[in-house]
Amino acid sequence: MAAPSAPRPPRPRKEPQPLVIPRSAAEEQRLRLERLMRNPEKTVPIPEKLNEWAPRPPPEFVRDVMGSSAGAGSGEFHVYRHLRRREYQRQDFMDAMAEKQRLDEEFQKKLERNKMIAEEQTAKRRRKRCMLWINAIILCLHLSAEKSGCGN
């Protein structure tokens, strides 16, 4: 058996915090920042990006089900309807992914085009600066040659 230990000292009491109800989004954000800054050493949990929803893959084997026409039993219609809904959902998802990919490609092209334009402007300004320096050096050489009397 463990020996009886000395009683623990009582826990320090937390100061009761006044209840503050944020009246706007900015005030709510300010309160959250104040709460974070009370203990700057504490790590902040950053949630990871959630996976995008994707439909289930189509079944590899579909039972021989009658369509929605007459002659099919009531159960077959529900099976047909669910299969049809899933297929439409899958096609809509594929269309949305294709549209997203197209928009991403357009955005990348736009970024590349903007980068090229910025690079061209930078090169133009660089050439201009170099020409200013070269002209200044030529002017200094010309003036120094005139002072020394070598230009005659």
Q: Could you walk me through the main structural features you see in this protein, from its secondary elements to its overall organization?
A:
This protein is mainly α and 152 residues long. The chain has two helices and no strands. The chain has helices at residues 25-38, 74-148. The longest helix is centred in the last third of the chain and has 75 residues, at 74-148. One of its GO terms (molecular function) is protein kinase inhibitor activity.
Report how far apart the termini are.
113 Å
Mean pLDDT: 85
Note the main sheet. Answer: none
Element pattern in H and E: HH
Structural class: mainly alpha
- Report the portion of residues in β strands: under 5%
Extract low-pLDDT stretches.
Answer: none
- Helix content, binned percent: 55-70%
Shape: flat
**Strand tally:** 0
Query: Rg from C-alpha positions?
Result: 37 Å
State the main characteristics.
single chain; mainly alpha
Task: Write a concise synopsis of the structure shown.
This protein has a domain at 67-152.
Question: Layout of SSEs?
Answer:
Layout: H1 25-38, H2 74-148
